[in-house]
Amino acid sequence: MIEHPRRWQKPKIWILAAGLFCGTIGPLFAQEPAPKSDPSGSKPSASQEAPAKKKARPKARRRVRRDEAPGFYMGRPIADVMSWQGAEWLFRETRVQEEQPEAMLDALKIPRGGTVADVGAGAGYHSIRMARRVGPKGIVYAADVQPEMLRMLRDNARMAGVSNIKTIRCTQDDTALPEGALDLILMVDVYHECSDPEAILKGFLQALKPGGRLVLVEFRGEDPEVPIKPEHKMTLAQVRREVEPQGFAFKESLEFLPWQHVIIFEKPAPRPDGAAGAASATKPTRP
Ligand SMILES: C[S@@+](CC[C@H](N)C(=O)[O-])C[C@H]1O[C@@H](n2cnc3c(N)ncnc32)[C@H](O)[C@@H]1O
Questions:
Q1: What is the pLDDT of residues 187-221, one digit of tens each?
Q2: Three-state DSSP class for 236?
Q3: Once rounded to an integer, what is the mean pLDDT over residues 23-44?
Q4: Looking at domain 86-266, which of 3.40.50.1240, 3.40.630.30, 3.40.50.1980, 3.40.50.150 is its CATH number?
Q5: Share of the chain above pLDDT 90, in %
């Protein structure tokens, strides 16, 4: 197994060693600085972030969008964006057993000819599989905040012989997806990295067709045996607490993967009286 230097949970005995490692060699792995308008780079420190927010956002809005502690959202830490320099980890041999990507996509019943998006696509691990499933008449929008990831994704798609992927450079507060066009949006191991969850969920609502699905695949925060750092996991309850108030209806959480939730939401169809559709909650199920 290729161990990513940042994401895997290490035994406590290594904490001191890891601290020394981060202080000396760690900076070599740091992300390239991102442009100011694109906060995809290393997270700013608390002292950098707080004054900017005070200036930019009115008081009431700030209370709704953010916890008082910088780097937190609704009580959980927002994880750092995984650097493109670790992209090899996304294609580790063991990933097929650990995450069963084909079984996960089977369960989603992606429509042939459909218009779908892989957001936080990385180097295209799922985009390429989705492109094969929608077929030549379908389209996959593969979006990521890191242009380097998108460059690797285009190379990988070319090598895989798929030509129905459109790459999109998005930002942390602009999904840059076409409006009202999508049947499905997939995010695998990404949502917990989003520094502005409300902005991206608003963008997703605009981009989906009525009845379109938003699927968040996240490592189970409820399970201490899942060998991923806590800030890279999410509980189902936390995901629902964050997503439903933004206008999505919870449909189900598929729990057949070894380590991950597959959490499915829907953009409600408008009701005949013109009001937004009501959320219809169902219990977690196994397919
Ligand atoms: C852990 S990687 C997962 C990549 C891919 N989904 C996979 O499973 O192979 C997380 C990716 O999400 C991207 N990302 C983080 N926040 C994002 C956001 N708000 N919008 C789009 N991409 C984002 C990162 O740049 C990174 O490529």
A1: 999 999 999 999 999 999 999 999 999 999 999 99
A2: helix
A3: 33
A4: 3.40.50.150
A5: 69
Single-letter residue type at 206: Q
Domain ranges in the chain with CATH number 3.40.50.150: 86-266
pTM above 0.90, yes or no: no
Q: 81: Cβ below 6 Å to ligand 1?
A: yes
Residue 119, ligand 1, Cβ within 6 A: yes
* Distance of CA 193 from the midpoint of ligand 1 (Å): 7
* Token pair recorded at residue 170: 């998005």
Residue 56 and residue 58: Cα distance in Å, rounded? 7
Whether the pLDDT of residue 3 is over 70: the answer is no
As given in the structure block, the two tokens for residue 131 are: 């492109």
- Using most ligand atoms within 8 A of CB, pick from 145, 177, 260 the residue to mutate for ligand 1: 145
CA dihedral 286, 120, 53, 199 (to 10 degrees): -60
Q: How many CA within 13 A on the CB side of residue 267?
A: 22
Is the shortest distance between the CB of 183 and ligand 1 below 6 Å? no
What is the model's pLDDT at position 238? 98
